[in-house]
Amino acid sequence: MQQQLDVALKLNRDPQVFAHKSHPGDVGGENVSVVFWVDMFLVFVLALCTLLQLPRIYARLSNPSERRYGHFLYRASQPKHPPTSTSSSSQGSETSQTGLVPADAADEKAARCPPPKHVRAWEALLRPLVPFLRTPFIERIHLGGTLFCAFYFGVVLFAGLYRTSVFTNPLRLGYVAVSQIPWVVVLASKNNIISLLLGIGWDHMNYIHRFAGRLLTIAANIHVLGYVYKWTNSGDFVRHISEPRYAWGLVAIVCIDVLFFFSLAIWRLRAHNVFYLSHIAASILFLVAVCLHMRAAIPWVIAAAGVYLADLALRCLKTRLCTARLAPLPELGATAVEVPALEGGWRAGQHVRLRVLSRRMGWLSWAETHPFTIASASGAIAQRGLVLLCKNTGRWTRRLQALAGKEQMDGSGMTMTVMVEGPYGGPGDTLLASFSGVLLVLGGSGISYGLAAAEELVQKATAGASTVTVLDLVWCVRYSDCLTPMLPIFTSLLAQAQAAGLAFQVTVFHTRAAIPARTCGAYDLPAGLTLLMGHPSLALRLRDLVSRTQQGALDAGADAGEKPRGVLVGVCGPMELGEDVRMAIDAVEPDVQRAVGGIELIEE
Prior knowledge:
Layout: H1 2-13, H2 30-61, H3 64-67, E1 74-75, H4 130-133, E2 136-138, E3 141-142, H5 143-161, H6 171-179, H7 181-188, H8 193-198, H9 206-234, H10 237-241, H11 244-261, H12 265-270, H13 272-293, H14 298-317, E4 319-329, E5 334-339, E6 342-344, E7 350-356, E8 370-373, E9 386-391, H15 395-410, E10 414-425, E11 437-443, H16 447-462, E12 470-477, H17 487-500, E13 503-510, E14 529-533, H18 538-556, E15 567-572, H19 575-586, H20 590-596, E16 599-603
Parallel strand pairs: 11-12, 11-15, 12-13, 13-14, 15-16
Antiparallel strand pairs: 1-6, 2-3, 4-5, 4-10, 5-9, 7-8, 7-10
Helix pairs in contact: 2-5, 2-6, 5-9, 6-9, 7-9, 7-14, 9-11, 11-13, 16-17, 18-19, 18-20
């Protein structure tokens, strides 16, 4: 960074770089110095947060069963073949047309591993403030995230106003905009150092990327307007704008505004390809234009380009070309995608990006990638590979289900060549197997996260690599027949959990009244699986789990004098479901939370 400062100072002293540099408030290299030290302050804040996270980082890396997962997908040692399927509506069958084959009841070759160390999150020190900080503010952004954005804005505002004025020195805001380029690029990359250090998935930090990008846009536009106003008043606008470096500055600001406009939610959600392509084209042109406009920006642009190229290289290393089997899940309104060749490498809660290489999905299907949460555990006993449940939410997923359904009617089965990139996101440095109790609250397609987490915990309990004694899974669906394709999986997991000594319960709530078209008939439900109508009382269920966890942990550690390791609540579903879970956690008395070792929340 010192070399970056020296280069920028040298360029700033070059009289040929900025003919417009002489104005009040710009003393020597003050503009460069201010934005440089503001960047250093942001690095210091990142280092401080990393220091607080170090105990959890060490706990994860010190456990062999945890440190090898979550980085790269690895292939099976021997080729696996998708199982021959039967009817998807068979309620008692141990196989299904979805390819979601239940795991064996026991794993004789399960490796015995020590359970991971449990380290409470440093946020536990802020326990009285947690309910306040978790208050929803804007969509999925909590008040804590909003306060951080306000802090970030204050830091950038200081850089723009320290010992100067935007009216007399618009050049300062040009430096402020340039200094934010590396941060915006880092926060946008899927393989970024900030996520690695803080244990937060890139997708959970994307709102900071958008906020930083908006600050960059505001600073750059005020910088341009300042000079337009100045040159217009002096009558020199045409003469200045005809100079190459200012023409490139105009190109740069147009690119920034294009990036801002096409990053709005309406484009991201309804025309993602337009958003993506405009981002790629405008970003590259912007980096080139800003260097030609402002030579002092080159060090920051080089840093941003280096981050972007490193991210691209890692994404290539994380990409696997495989053959996948597809099967429709009409009860869930989804399509199951099973990739038997990928054996493991991911953690529960992580997602991959799927690209289908088939003309049957359209001529441009190769250009589309879609993120899906993994619905199976890494190195699962059933050896069914990586499984995705692709919910029908748009044109691409509906085409996928229609194609899978057509092939199913032909009786030939459906296989496609796919590119799988990942894994990304996930629980970070939070170790599910290090707690005493786990409650999984899922809504609709959130079952993908629940299946992976439950299977991973049962698998580790079988191997003696988990301290979880109580595991509850609550799944909210619209209609009762959604249970049909999942029944064999739940039955198998319950049998494995019982053999491993894990108290596992599954409760499925169907929230819509029964209709003939969505009636599932009579289920032969195994012990531990309950089907109810209505909405769950999450506060009562959490209190019950806390009580059973505390008692189970005390019984298990009575001789050793161990205390409960806490309860983890994982939620994946609609925003309203997440809010209900937060309210249920906040309703538990502080004394009860301390007695059980604390209650932590993961939102996927």
